[in-house]
Amino acid sequence: xxxxxxxxxxxxxxxxxxxxxxxxxxxxxxxxxxxxxxxxxxxxxxxxxxxxxxxxxxxxxxxxxxxxxxxxxxxxxxxxxxxxxxxxxxxxxxxxxxxxxxxxxxxxxxxxxxxxxxxxxxxxxxxxxxxxxxxxxxxxxxxxxxxxxxxxxxxxxxxxxxxxxxxxxxxxxxxxxxxxxxxxxxxxxxxxxxxxxxxxxxxxxxxxxxxxxxxxxxxxxxxxxxxxxxxxxxxxxxxxxxxxxxxxxxxxxxxxxxxxxxxxxxxxxxxxxxxxxxxxxxxxxxxxxxxxxxxxxxxxxxxxxxxxxxxxxxxxxxxxxxxxxxxxxxxxxxxxxxxxxxxxxxxxxxxxxxxxxxxxxxxxxxxxxxxxxxxxxxxxxxxxxxxxxxxxxxxxxxxxxxxxxxxxxxxxxxxxxxxxxxxxxxxxxxxxxxxxxxxxxxxxxxxxxxxxxxxxxxxxxxxxxxxxxxxxxx
Length: 474
Known about the structure:
single chain, 474 residues, mainly beta, Immunoglobulin-like, 5-stranded mixed β-sheet, 2 helices, elongated
């Protein structure tokens, strides 16, 4: 019996040894040759209605048979668009937005596939240039300046067959900062007509979308727009009828309700038009109550929450009490998310300048820096326009002149620009080196970079009426 077990073991060992015999064959592996792809860019600009041609040069050394497939996908497409051929040649009929392109190259001789990605940015005639809001003989006008300087005046009425509401005040471009690539999706033409409050238009074709009144879930019968601003969510926020309103953004940014107004922020307050939006990790607002003449705290915890004067006042300099300021506010601005400046008049008409720093993210403090009488208060009128740069320089209009104000030295200097005795109706900071001023029928671009005196570097004529606001797209 023992002998049988030994024989069985030997037979199994021999079988296993023969099964594990190493194959010493001589094999040569060769990686399939990949095609060379030339003349294929990463980004293409396509004008809606024009031809889009992408013609890459694809070559391979072994004369293999290749085929090309093109796919285009985007947020407004239910499924990818698919094309075949050595080149992509189409009439671009998609929207003025960003599309992802995918090229698949197939070697039909061995089945190998190769992939290349690219992007398409759709454009229209209004994708680059300057949109101008103006007032002509009491009528609100929207015009467009092309990059070559030519003007399409009164374009809104020509495209929409209707007039805009009266009393224009602002032109706001909405950008969703967290969506790449960043692009203006629409404009809000803000008006103080008492009924509509303004009109939203598509930034790429200037066609009407809706009125501001219809941006409410429950449209009001009347409304007075005190001040509205755009924010980083691509929605509106601001003061209407003395109450704070905020565009709903807790949903998909393509949803029909995105950016709409609900009920105003609850609380016992009546806001000044001037407010500060600080886009910190947890955003907050600084408001000013016109009745109690106090600075207010509003935090954005998903939605705005009113805290009023629930903050600690630190007044080591003995400057002022933020909970009892005693001024009628005429302007307020925060620069570089740091110093805040406010300008206002007391009961006697004396104009004061305030500077302060807030921390409304905890600890909730309001630190005053100073309160002082403003030099040359006679320059500030009811029609004064304000702008400021990141280096804490203010520019303001006064009648037919524009002045530069440095709060550090308290120096006020007129700019060199000559406006021909015409009142300045608009100021807009284009960038840190260029300020745009508006007078009757004209836009004047001023050089304000360090060391310059504010000379006119460019003039655009033919604006209908007096400019109110502009928005430039590059």
